[in-house]
Design a protein that fits this description.
heterodimer, A: 86 residues, mainly alpha, B: 197 residues, Rna Polymerase Sigma Factor, Chain: A, Arc Repressor Mutant, subunit A, 2 domains, 71% helix, 0% strand, elongated
């Protein structure tokens, strides 16, 4: 029974990796069930998952801001490029 | 980095300098957006301008030079992504990843310590908090290049896993692992640098 549980249950680490995988591809039915079972039972993973969702939103926001950010080459950087073109 | 050694016509040289003045800042902003590193962005713009100069004869007169320069720049960015995933850098970041996971999990892969979330019900407040955003921005910049590129690939273009793996020249299982470790590192970085006021 213990062995069966071990096969059926994910560790926190496996669960975190599957959470990331889930954002990039569809999980298999078995993976999906295992992930849901783990999430229901593990407080630490639940806590990490809350943090991860916020990190996702915040990273997205930062990158969107960077997209709109207009940066300028400094005089020194421009000179370096001109040197390479000589 | 390399420089032009062959003498090209003064016309092409003048033209490239004109383009650098006209599009250089936009290219720099784009490269920074794609790599999160000012030094890398500068190198990529330089490499792109030098490549454009060297292959100036391939530019079709009358077409938009900005489009042509961006094609060159985007190819340089992909080359940079691939180069950051050399076996040496993967080995180095594997060590960082193992140590990070060793700190977070016990030998059975269970969290060694239950941590409260960094924040309670303050998500909206935090997302608008410039100090928090600055810290997270620095945390993103401080990620090992190959982990950072996974994060950037995922959020920039909302690419599929298979596309990101292909761009970065890594296997899909490596991709999940890197994404997981990058997120763990960001969380650790925030744990260490951010205190909710």
């Amino acid at each position: 029974m213990k062995g069966l549980m071990k096969i059926a249950m994910l560790s926190c680490k496996q669960s975190s990796i599957l959470s990331e995988k889930q954002e990039l591809v569809n999980l298999s039915i078995v993976e999906s069930i295992k992930l849901k079972m783990h999430a229901k039972m593990c407080t630490a993973s639940k806590s990490l998952s809350i943090d991860n969702k916020l990190i996702d939103q915040a990273v997205l926001k930062i990158l969107e801001q960077r997209k709109e950010q207009n940066m300028s080459l400094t005089a020194a950087q421009r000179e370096k490029i001109l040197q390479a073109l000589r | 980095m390399y420089s032009v050694t062959a003498k090209s016509t003064s016309n092409s040289h003048q033209e490239i300098i004109k383009w650098l003045n006209k599009y250089g800042d936009d290219m720099y902003s784009w490269a920074y957006y794609k790599t999160s590193s000012k030094e890398t962005a500068e190198d990529l713009v330089q490499d792109s301008m030098v490549s454009a100069y060297k292959s100036f004869e391939k530019y079709k007169s009358g077409t938009n030079p900005k489009t042509w320069l961006y094609t060159i720049l985007n190819n340089k960015i992909i080359d940079y992504y691939r180069a950051s995933n050399t076996s040496k850098s993967i080995n180095e970041t594997s060590l960082i990843g193992n140590s990070l996971e060793g700190y977070k999990y016990d030998s059975n892969g269970i969290f060694a310590k239950v941590q409260d979330p960094l924040w309670g019900n303050t998500e909206e407040h935090l997302l608008d908090n410039s100090e928090f955003n600055d810290i997270l921005s620095n945390c993103i910049n401080a990620l090992p290049p190959n982990w950072r590129n996974v994060i950037l690939g995922k959020y920039f273009h909302h690419k599929k896993g298979s596309e990101i793996s292909k761009d970065l020249g890594i296997t899909s299982s490596n991709l999940w692992q890197m994404a997981h470790r990058a997120k763990l590192q960001l969380k650790t970085c925030l744990d260490q640098n951010w205190k909710d006021n």
